[in-house]
Fold each of these.
Amino acid sequence: MTTIGIIGAGHIGSQLASKAVQLGYDVVISNSRGPESLAELAAELGPKARAATPAEAAAAGEFVVVTVPLKNIGDIPVEPLAGKIVVDTNNYYWERDGRIPALDNGEATTSGMLQEHLPASKVAKAFNHIMSTQIATDGTPAGTPDRRALATASDYPEAAELVERLYDEFGFDTVNIGPLSESWRVERDRPAYGARQNAAELEDNLARAPRTI
């Protein structure tokens, strides 16, 4: 079965790990404090999960989820992620991350910043506009009326396609925004952020998003 590396074991990382294990994935999860700090979480996740360092999680994953504060993306290991699809859940919280003028001025996107940090990887935005607690609870089978939809964006079609498959397994429809340069449409404080919406509603909210807040 596919192994998912997860860098970041906070609310989103732990929920993604839990759902992925339920779906049969092997998970290697990490954080900045070291694998010993994740012993309890790894035990809860069971035998299909293990704790590791970020570099080990990056190397082990057939694809890797990065879910760390934006201010810490410079710490993400570069070499072991070369050639891999990297799923980015990040949002810009200036209260936590400090002011970043390029984001404030609408000149950059959070996922674009990670792509710049990982030039040999294929970054796709995902799981950034849903509450972490809903990741494992809001999914429904394909074809369910009014099925919840989530957005993705990537400069690489194969990365967006992987997210679409993952979303479907987790129980969500997908709306592909296009390249990372458009991923701001689903970031914090825009209409699509945090809303429970089907695909048509998500498309409408994406279209209504203002470039700067």
Note: The first helix runs from residue 11 to 22.
Amino acid sequence: MTALSFEVLGVEAAHHAASPTIMFRLRIAEGSGAVVHAMVVRAQIRIEPQRRRYDSEEESRLYEMFGETPQWGNSLRPFLWTHATCTTPGFTGSIDVDLPVECTYDFEVAGAKYMHSLSDGEIPLILLFSGTVFTRGDSGFSAEPVGWEQESNFRLPVAVWRDLMDQYFPNSGWIRLDRDTFDALQCYKASRALPTWDQAVEHLLKAAGDD
């Protein structure tokens, strides 16, 4: 049996990926002396919002997710951000590998909504690992699962996520609309000869403020 442990060493944005991607640097150690031929590593990444403080502006932005602050003792609970997978080459002892995590800017996804609401500081994460390890011994190759108890805590700087989104969506945000709502907004925009979607939404907001 292998004796594995996982540690997140750091994180950085992938600058030339096709979609917004954060690279977590993992150190995987094997303590029994087994020769690891390869590994398939899967990670469930959860956000632990109760493990940080929030200023008044952040509290206001997070109202939709967690309700009024007096409710936060019950509503501030860990939730799933995303899943990620990587493979490793063979090693003995330990190895450092990159775990790529694709990020969305869809505000209907809880993780994106939460991260966008933060002004600064860090995002408390827990990475729960699973997967398969392939070892090579005197009798040939064998495969065994990565133990479900493998996990690692990490605090992702908010600045890393914001800088990544600014690379792909500078000064922008994304929302998804039902087709009927989109068609109605398009008609509104065209009937008033508004050149951009921003101006159409701004026009609607001003009209709502005047009522």
Note: Helices lie at 56-61, 63-66, 72-75, 110-116, 158-168, 179-191, 197-210.
Amino acid sequence: MFKPADLFDLTQTEHAALFDGCEFAWDALKRLKDYVDAHAQPLLKNQCDGVAYIGEKVFIGEGTVVEDGAMIKGPAIIGRHCQIRHNAYIREHVLVGDGCVVGNSCELKHAILFNDCQVPHFNYVGDSVLGFKAHLGAGVKISNAKIVPGNVTVEIDGQRYDTGLRKFGALLGDFAEVGCNAVLNPGSILGRHALVYPCANWRGVLAADRIAKNKAAVEVVARKT
């Protein structure tokens, strides 16, 4: 389930060429910098509501609204009919598809968002790929670097595989969802339609159509006056 086509509908991005010949979907992250540097041509077709900072090497498609206080540092390519909301921070080497939401106080860095992806509230997405109609709940963080030295690894058939990436956050397949305030640890992979419960601390691979539940105990006691 680690090939690009296993996770993503490649017709739902204008940047499918980035995945050509990739044995594993995360290999596209190794090409992302060069791809964005080569293809990000300065052209702004968007509407600004208020005052935003937009860097010199940024492309934004028609129908996209950039709200007051947003900072798009770039290089970046942002598609059509997106919402880049108040105080969003889009850093270097980011691809945002059509119809996406990048919300208040969200930060994107070295990331790929397929069409209709939603990163709407207080999210961090670094060194990651989010598939078609993937959705992050408020406060979801995608951790992209191990605390200890070394490359991020992924477990395949019970064995650790070195991805060759010192920084690698997550791959979210099409329609995957992550609940509010959950954390995805480095090298997390969610299959299509997978769901991670709110406040979960997830690490590893979650197959398609599976749910990762976090059943924390809740204690009810009498209220003292």
Note: The chain has a mean pLDDT of 96.
Amino acid sequence: MEKLKEGFRWYGDSDPVPLSFIRQSGASSVFSSLHHIPYGELWSVGEIEKHKGKVAAAGLEWDVVESLPVSEDIKLRSGDYLRHIENYRESIRNLSACGIRKIIYNFMPVLDWIRTDLHYRLPDGSRCLRFDPVQFAAFDIFVLKRSGAAEERSPECVAKAEAFFSSLDGDGKKSFERSIIDVFPGCKMGLEIGDVKKMLARYGGVTPQKLKENLKLFLEDVLPVAEESGAILAIHPDDPPFPVLGLPRIASRVEDFLEMFEACPSASNTVCFCTGSLSAGLHNDLASMVDRLAGRIRVAHLRSTQVEPDGSFFEAGHLEGRVPMVRVVRRLMEIQDKILASGGEKIVFRPDHGRDMADDLSKPPTDNPGYSFIGRMKGLCEIRGVMEAISKGA
């Protein structure tokens, strides 16, 4: 079987991991985005070519867009959404004209992803990202002060959340707040709690079914352009894949994706198979999911999580945790063989969220938690070894 195409995420010129390091890792493909362009605005051919040229000059290929952001106006179909959709359509055309036709996006309301500890210390001394439901309850109840937040949880959880929040001093509380509300990939939006409250208020009364309908309408607006351009759109799963802040979650389980594909059957409608995001939900069986979504996978994020009895989870090693990584990689290679036999392109993957370890532990914290170099390179090498064994018939 053919090996999957190896990729690595790059956040642009401000990324402390330069393109030269990515090339040294052995990856050939770059997952990247134009983070300096505000959500909803147009990606011009000039800006795309400039970014692509930087990647090419380093001997790499900008192969996957991660991501082309969907604005809150589009998700809610309100405000300036018509202009944003037209910009999205034109951005797809411009990317395709520049030879970039794999486009990841997400439809998560308000916050793209959520963790409560960006530097969780593991027994071996390395650090990783962690989500703790008690600590998140503390944020929801005592920082955000969302109506109904306490009533959604058990008295025991509320008591533990209060004890945790009381243990933080002033700086600790501020740091805790920032770690949750301002971790948008590749950019700092400078959000304050008041901004988050306003964003949440916009979703008042928006049910999961309503958000699914808005996703369907968005896809009906943009998929024809993707088809004409030879592009694919790959939705990223919710992270974490369960309800948070009273917001609807519509990309958290296999049924969500199958329903989306049934509603919009275009071949350009695909999923970014993110094993880490999906594995944080105990309802998700990753081995079964890769089988059921096989025909819709063209890009993947490969990592794993370890879920604890209380619902907390942290980033496990790439070959550890809940994800049967060898089984998943083997299946992706089988899927890829069928794609190649029909004249398609290789599946592109990247190692996701690596641990801070070795020399990276002594470096200052970055704006891209989870994206230190050594931990991701370790994950890439582990997955590369799995692919090598499978390709040799092991």
Note: The first helix runs from residue 19 to 24.
